[in-house]
Amino acid sequence: MRYAPITERMKGLGAEKWDVHYRARAKVLAGERVLQLSIGEPDWPAPAAVLEETIRALRAGRTTYSSGRGEENMVETIAAHYAQRTRRTVSPDSVIFMPGTQAAMCAVMMALVSQGDEVIVPEPFYVTYDGIIAATGATQVPVLMKPEDGFHLTVEELQAVVTEKSRVLVLNSPSNPTGAVLAAGEVAAIGRFCVEHDLWIVSDEVYSTLLYGGVMFASPFDDPVLAQRTAVVSSLSKSHAMTGYRAGWIVGPEELCTRALPIAEAMLFGCQPFIQDAAVYALTHEFAECHEAYAHCERRAQRMSSALAAMPGVTCSMPEGGMFLFADVRETGLSGHDFALRLLEEENVSTMPGESFGRAGAGHVRVSITAPDDVIDEALERIAKFTQSVMAAV
After folding, report:
1. 3-state class (DSSP) for residue 210
2. Which stretch of DSSP H or E encloses residue 37?
3. pTM, whole model, 2 decimals?
4. How far is CA 343 from CA 38, 145, 256, 291, 301, in A?
């Protein structure tokens, strides 16, 4: 039987990267107790008032078909949210509501690139980026970030990879998996480079509310010049612990959204109205639970990074933002994959191999900070025991 070329392009770019995590899940299903630090699933609930609004909308019968762009109140609310942030007018026609950042990224990339184009991606990168790019037929061009630079992107590194085929630069700040956050000056310099080379910027901003140590968030969309070549993709998954709601969006130039809308409609043709009502409520209210969670994440990140850095064979810095630590385990002599696999097999602690995020992640493991404190404490004890054992054998 024949299959479309997309199935060949995407071989090995899906579940295989989650191998250690899925092995951990299999252990759990088999009745074993596994301490799971492998995914960014908030361990705190969505705000109680958002849940009540979801129930209200369900009871009100908000379960019918929806507009492909999104409910009118939804796209107006997202537009107002970014108008407040950027201090300029943002039209509802510059918005498409999507079921999460993943779908938003996919629709945007399909609207911007195809066979023969190149997409520049700083590496390490979130595990699904290469699958999305491969689906379009474009070629992913990695920019290998360096641990000694804090995994920050520089214009000099971009100059080394840009070609006449380059069409898009992907930015993810705060970064998953590294926790790096681009400063305003870095974003401005990168933006000037993109103007010079006529590149689109796809800015994944899903972790923008999780910033540590006084670090400030900066987006190319907030610059009125760069906004004309920037597509923001984001969601409420991390900011409001609404992962299962699948409430995300695209914000960008009106023409881009006009061109991306038929793609979004071909994929989905609308999202549940009751989910959008809940998302509107989330974006138009402040929640003490969220701010407490952000502060708790910072305290966890500080405690966990210090504990990991004190372990033999491990180097770990405090992240600038996000939900993860990116621990360097190269001194153990193990690859990130072997470290994560052995840690799971010997100590029942689940982490993500750095290699799942590209070649630049080799020799690292990503450790989530989104687990209950008692689970984190026990996991740190087990990781310390494991590293001591490994280093004793080196």
Report:
1. coil
2. none
3. 0.95
4. 12, 26, 45, 33, 20
Alpha-carbon distance 80 to 279, whole Å?
A: 13
Q: What percent of the chain has pLDDT over 90?
A: 94
Best CA proximity match to 353, nearest among 321, 330, 369: 330
Report the C-alpha gap between 12 and 9 in whole angstroms: 9
pLDDT in tens, 112-133: 999 999 999 999 999 999 999 9
| Cα dihedral 191/194/198/204 (nearest 10) | -80
- The shares of helix, strand and coil residues in the chain, as percent rounded to the nearest 5, are 50, 15, 35
Residues near 253 by beta carbon (within 8 Å), at least 6 away in sequence: 94, 227, 228, 229, 230, 231
Beta-bridged to residue 143, according to DSSP, are 122
- Within a 13 Å sphere around the CA of 110, how many CA atoms are in the beta-carbon half? 22
Taking CA 359 as the corner, what is the angle to CA 136 and CA 127, rounded to the nearest 5 degrees? 45
Q: Which amino acid is at 317?
A: S
Percent of the chain topping pLDDT 70: 99
